[in-house]
Design a protein that fits this description.
Elements (H helix, E strand, L loop, with lengths): L1 E3 L4 E3 L4 H43 L6 H6 L11 H11 L6 H11 L1 H5 L4 H15 L2 E5 L5 E5 L15
Antiparallel strand pairs: 1-2, 3-4
Helix pairs in contact: 3-6, 4-6
Length: about 170
Amino acid sequence: MQVQSANTTIIGNHSNGHVEEVIRQAHDELRQLLQQRAEVMRRIGTIKQTIAGLANLFGDSILSDELLELVDRKSSGRQPGFTKACRMVLMDANRALSARDVCDRMQQRSATILARHKDPMASVTTVLNRLVAYGEARAVSLDNGRRAWQWVADANSESMRMPASA
């Protein structure tokens, strides 16, 4: 048994079982919360994609200012952010996209956003990996073995998804 004089904390072998139990419970709860977060992010992705699809079909005017902001479609009068542009490209895509595909689509939408980056492919790849870390996208392998990214959405809710262009 070890005794510390400052706070008279006693640590003994008999307490290890309690500590291990607390750690086990915390680990279980953390795992459960991370799973719930992943499920919530998939659901958010599905709903954002549905709203964006409806706005593509009927125009942004059907959405309130708050909703436009929530789905990253509100025009602030300035050049949209790089991350926001990557999000919109992935959200509007009907398949997984390579970093090159994302760059090409960003170039079509707004060439100036890529022009501000010394290495657009590296910037896009960095943002796509960040979106994976945020739970907004998932990395997948294409048939040719190359890496691609896809907007996260519920597999069960794919029928809610609207076409990217109508």
